[in-house]
Design goal:
By secondary structure, the chain is α+β, with helices and mostly antiparallel strands. The protein has one domain: 2-Layer Sandwich (TATA-Binding Protein), CATH 3.30.310. 39% of the residues lie in helices and 24% in strands. It contains two helices and three strands. It has a three-stranded antiparallel β-sheet with strand order 1-3-2. β2 and β3 form a beta hairpin. The mean pLDDT is 85.
């Protein structure tokens, strides 16, 4: 499939701090898409979590975006329940 025929969705999700955006990034970056027809790129910049999706099927893109939003809801609920990390750096996966 050529680059021009791919559908693209870019999402920027603000978090209260750089630290919480980094935590969300580390959670989402290891979650591979089950369908290899969808490409997902997760990055973070300051307090923003940035997710880019590319694929040829709008239905598969919708499913992928919904999955990421469900994970972000779970991340926020976990942070609300247990609080933010005490340390300023996250080194478990680096």
């Amino acid at each position: 499939m050529t680059e021009e025929s791919l559908l693209t969705i870019n999402i920027e999700i603000p978090f209260p701090s750089n630290r919480t955006a980094e935590l969300a990034y580390h959670v989402l970056r290891v979650d591979a898409e089950p369908k290899k027809t969808i490409q997902k790129e997760v990055t973070h910049k300051e307090h923003l979590l940035i997710v880019k999706f590319q694929g040829s099927s709008s239905k598969q893109l919708r499913v992928a975006v919904n999955s990421v939003f469900e994970n972000i809801i779970l991340i926020n609920e976990t942070l609300d329940a247990f609080g933010d990390s005490i340390s300023e750096t996250y080194t478990h996966f680096t």
